[in-house]
Design brief:
The complex is a heterodimer.
Chain A lengths: L1 H16 L17 E7 L3 H17 L3 E7 L2 H13 L6 E5 H9 L7 H5 L11 H5 L2 E2 L8 E2 L2 E2 L3 E2 L2 E4 H7 L12 H11 L9 E3 L4 H7 L18 H15 L7 H6 L2 H6 L3 E5 L5 H7 L4 E4 L12 E4 L1 E5 L6 H13 L1 H9 L8 H8 L10 H9 L1 E2 L10 H9 L1 H4 L5 H26 L2
Parallel strand pairs in A: 1-2, 1-3, 9-10, 12-14
Antiparallel strand pairs in A: 3-13, 4-5, 6-13, 7-12, 8-10, 8-11
Helix pairs in contact in A: 2-15, 9-10, 18-20
Chain B lengths: L1 H33 L17 H7 L2 H12 L3 H17 L5 H13 L2 H11 L6 H8 L11 H30 L2 H9 L4 H12 L1 H16 L3 H6 L12 H11 L3 H29 L5
Helix pairs in contact in B: 4-8, 4-11, 5-8, 11-14, 13-14
The chains are: A alpha/beta, B mainly alpha.
């Protein structure tokens, strides 16, 4: 008998430990005569406060609507959202990262917002940059074309921030829009800016942006026509990757992998021990608070091979569930949260994002008496040098994650860019093929 | 009368039974079914694909790497069992500051894993970490704990061992206190030394607890996930840190293959069951169950 009890207990323990489904979400209460919407997002404490204020204002403007605001940690957000969708009770309005946008749209989870955008009472379509509205278009196969399925929650560009004081000390003249640097100029400057040793070591540059190096050099991760062939072993790609690695390995103007692991380039920059770092515009507030030096921004250098410069731009979308019972109200909420003037203003004043409303960006933000002095560079980068990352255009991102999880072996010098890309190509191709198959299998 | 008592009994059991059925038994059944489909959560398109998920799974090298890494996570079990017992024994023998030590041992167990991870990341920081500082001042080489999957795994083993020593020693302390004093008195009269008493009386009498802790530890260790996600969010270079549960999570929520993830969970569940049954059958050779 005792044996049997122990045995049953153990079986129960094993059973309890299984099932990825036990975390599915709860069903929401049905709305009565008043419209009740659920909105799910993530954010820092400051952002959450801003959103609470906005929601309260929205409820005042639309007295028949009540909003339940669900906050989830950003690293758990997607898991939770998928569980809720799986359980058949998604929130009415929710954040959608650009990388997941295609997956959610293709499987019919996002409401087509085109007609609402064209006849809306909340924002002026012409006052919003085309790039960020176009970002959330999908025509059934390609991102960036077709109907609108989300509104931008924010937009961020990823330029190079530099320490003006260190530049002056080393006698380095920063590039301008008219006279951009090429890679060689960047390296020469980084060399001049690198100095000292031990505690006083100052590095010229942080890790260079992989995407910028690759795209500016005229290379691609995958072909842009059909998004079906991995191209990482093409000479221009290999050259770009090796150039990046050599900044660290040969020229020693970038902290080693171990050093970056100990104190990342971003924090090193804030401490004044690194002169140029790639960072998003969401970092402005942090820089304002924690940098005791003057900083400014520049565009990524052009590749000597092509003479052009490209970088990705980031955004999270506000989407409306295709299952919502109140499409118009849900759209209103999304639009209100996206383009609400006060929140746009608070966001740039706190240094969380640049405004998405053109008039506010050009008039208020551009003349704000805070670093960087050259805010026009940010607009230039956004309008003329950005593109959507390739992995955002595929159904799953596994192929890109595989590359990133292993690329450190090039940066720490354990293999060359050539051998790495040749070794990785078949793996990435298999994962990309899988993504295409999944897309065919599950797209509506 | 009997019948009414039976009904009342069922009523009292109902909350637990309903909870079990709704949150465990049903999802489990759905998972079994889902493992034979191509379900991806997001899409309403779904069809039965037979054994395809299982075939694909067995052919995926990452599954085998993850399985190997999962076994690696069993290493903490003997470490925390032995150290936990030693600590409990020390407390039992009334060392000074016993209560303070008990609290200190228990602290890691109730601390948030995220907070612990942040502290451990700093301890094992390559340039500024205390561990490397200690190693280098003793003349050893510094290790790049966080960038090398092998070292990251070792660090996780150390962290899990440390985290569980406290709770394990509490279990042992409870059972040590329940060993009747008469055995020791009799042994003393027969002239048994302290060491002999420990190995001949204490150790055999606490084997049921050891067995329980080993079974629970095995099941828990095989499910190591959150540490991996926190220390190596992408699974580490060449998937060197990823465990099976991490693999399941990744397939379900990042690769949009819930059916496939369910198949992995089923296979792995079966696997845990077999291991546990082996443990159970071996237990009769070493677990003392009384006269």
């Amino acid at each position: 008998m005792k044996k049997f009890t122990t045995f049953s207990l153990i079986i129960c323990l094993v059973l309890l430990s299984l099932s990825p489904l036990s975390a599915a979400g709860k069903k929401e209460a049905a709305p009565s005569d008043q419209v009740k919407l659920t909105f799910m997002g993530w954010g820092t404490d400051a952002e959450i406060d801003t959103y609470r204020t906005m929601i309260a204002d929205f409820e005042k403007a639309y007295p028949n609507v009540k909003v339940e605001y669900i906050v989830v940690a950003d690293n758990e957000f997607d898991t939770k959202l998928q569980s809720m969708i799986g359980a058949g009770s998604p929130p009415d309005v929710f954040y959608c990262m650009i990388d997941n946008f295609m997956k959610y749209t293709a499987t019919g989870n996002l409401l087509n917002l085109s007609q609402f955008v064209n006849s809306n009472e909340i924002f002026e379509r012409d006052n919003v940059w085309d790039q960020i509205i176009d970002l959330y278009r999908y025509d059934g196969t390609m991102l960036g074309k077709g109907d609108v399925y989300a509104l931008p929650k924010d937009v961020s560009v990823f330029p190079i921030f530099y320490n003006v004081d260190l530049f002056k000390k080393a006698g380095v003249v920063p590039p301008t829009k008219e006279n951009p640097w090429d890679w060689n100029d960047y390296l020469a400057a980084a060399r001049k800016l690198t100095s000292g040793s031990g505690e006083n070591k100052v590095y010229g540059s942080g890790a260079y942006s992989l995407e910028s190096a690759v795209w500016s050099n005229g290379a691609e991760f995958i072909d842009q026509e059909t998004l079906s062939t991995v191209l990482i072993d093409e000479p221009a790609f290999v050259e770009a990757l090796q150039w990046m690695a050599d900044l660290r390995l040969v020229h020693q103007v970038v902290p080693t992998i171990a050093e970056s692991g100990s104190l990342n380039d971003y924090d090193r920059f804030k401490q004044g021990k690194l002169a140029m770092v790639g960072a998003g515009t969401w970092s402005l507030g942090d820089f304002w608070q924690n940098c005791d030096f003057t900083f400014d921004v520049m565009n990524w250098p052009v590749s000597p091979r092509t003479g052009k410069s490209e970088i990705w731009f980031g955004s999270a979308g506000l989407s409306v569930s295709s299952k919502t019972k109140h499409p118009q109200e849900a759209f209103n909420l999304a639009a209100y949260l996206a383009f609400y003037e006060d929140s746009q203003r608070t966001a740039y004043q706190k240094g969380q994002a640049i405004p998405m409303l053109k008039d506010m960006a050009y008039n208020e933000f551009a003349t704000l008496d805070k670093d960087p002095a050259h805010k026009d560079v940010l607009f230039d980068v956004l309008m003329n040098h950005t593109r959507v990352a390739s992995q955002s255009k595929t159904f799953t991102q596994d192929w890109f994650a595989e590359f990133n999880a292993n690329v450190a072996s090039v940066f720490d010098g354990s293999e060359t860019a050539r051998s790495f890309t040749q070794r990785m190509k078949p793996r990435l191709q298999a994962l990309l093929d899988e993504s295409i198959e999944l897309s065919k299998e599950f797209s509506l | 009368m009997k019948r009414r008592e039976g009904a009342a009994g069922l009523l009292f059991l109902a909350p637990t039974i309903i909870y079990f059925v709704v949150f465990f038994a049903l999802p489990l059944l759905i998972s079994v079914y889902a493992s034979f489909t191509n379900w991806n959560i997001l899409s309403p398109k779904r069809s039965v694909v037979g054994l395809r998920n299982y075939q694909k799974l067995l052919a995926d090298p990452k599954f085998w790497i993850a399985l190997k890494n999962t076994f690696y996570m069993l290493i903490p079990i003997p470490i925390y069992l032995i150290l936990g017992l030693l600590f409990a024994y020390a407390c039992h023998k009334k060392i000074p500051w016993e209560r303070l030590f008990r609290v200190l041992y228990y602290l890691p167990y109730i601390s948030s894993i995220v907070a612990l991870t942040i502290i451990w990341k700093w301890l094992f920081n390559t340039e500024f970490g205390l561990v490397n500082y200690a190693l280098s001042s003793l003349g050893f080489a510094k290790h790049d704990w966080l960038n090398d999957p092998m070292w990251t795994k070792r660090m996780i083993v150390i962290m899990i061992s440390w985290k569980f020593i406290g709770i394990i020693s509490i279990y042992y302390l409870a059972v040590l206190k329940s060993v009747p004093a008469v055995y020791y008195e009799a042994a003393k009269i027969d002239g048994a030394s302290g060491t002999q008493q420990f190995f001949k009386i204490t150790l055999p009498l606490i084997t049921p607890t050891t067995f329980y802790l080993a079974v629970v530890g095995l099941i828990g260790s095989l499910q190591t996930f959150i540490e991996v996600q926190l220390f190596a969010p992408d699974g580490g270079r060449e998937y060197g840190v990823a465990t099976i549960v991490y693999y399941i999570w990744q397939k379900a929520f990042q690769s949009s293959q819930m059916g496939y993830a369910c198949a992995t969970a089923m296979l792995f569940g079966l696997f845990i069951l077999i291991l546990t049954l082996i443990q159970l059958s071996v237990s009769r050779w070493w677990v003392y169950e009384g006269e």
